């Protein structure tokens, strides 16, 4: 019987992504302060938080592997937050028209029995087409992306806003880079491909 597998997240999107690889895992909410440190880069932030989330859940376990992940969206050097309001979403998307937004996703796997940590950061670039104001307003009204960093859902109607996507793993854009995760799990002695 393979070691227990945990996802240190309550995100329905991350859960659905991990289910592509295996149904055999449990989820747990990590209690982690996500406030950036002074001077911390976006890469350092997602790497640290992915590790901290996995370690927070692993601390309550004797055995098993725990997956942690964290994501930020960047427009230039600006870390993008969730818009929360329709007007903020409109302003974000208008700013992105004809521009590129980068998503950095940190992923970590912690072995609860040894505290061994392996981790990686994946970058994925979204190139927006030129957007008309009425297109932006229609999109926001239809999909209500007010709790999404960057004001769009790439797994839904947001795909219509893009010129192209650029990166190694489209799953990274949704919040869990499965290609890198598979490599990290193998480094921890677990190959989901070979499990029943």
Uncertain runs are none
CATH architecture: Alpha-Beta Complex
Query: What structural category arises from helix and sheet content?
Result: alpha/beta
Total number of helical segments? 6
The CATH class assignment is: Alpha Beta
- Tell me roughly what share of residues is in helical segments: 25-40%
Search tags:
32% helix; 25% strand; 6 helices; alpha/beta; 196 residues; Maf protein
Record the SSE blueprint:
Elements: E1 5-7, H1 12-19, E2 26-27, H2 42-58, E3 65-75, E4 78-80, H3 86-96, E5 100-111, E6 117-128, H4 133-143, E7 162-167, H5 170-174, H6 178-187
Helix pairs in contact: 3-4
Description:
By secondary structure, the protein is of the alpha/beta class. It has one domain (5-194): Maf protein (Alpha-Beta Complex). It is built from six helices and seven strands; from the N terminus they run βαβαββαββαβαα. It has helices at 12-19, 42-58, 86-96, 133-143, 170-174, 178-187; strands at residues 5-7, 26-27, 65-75, 78-80, 100-111, 117-128, 162-167. Strands 1, 2, 3, 4, 5, 6 and 7 form a seven-stranded mixed beta sheet that branches. Strand 5 (100-111) and strand 6 (117-128) form a beta hairpin. Helix 3 (86-96) crosses helix 4 (133-143). The longest helix is centred in the first third of the chain and has 17 residues, at 42-58. The model has no long low-confidence stretch (mean pLDDT 94).
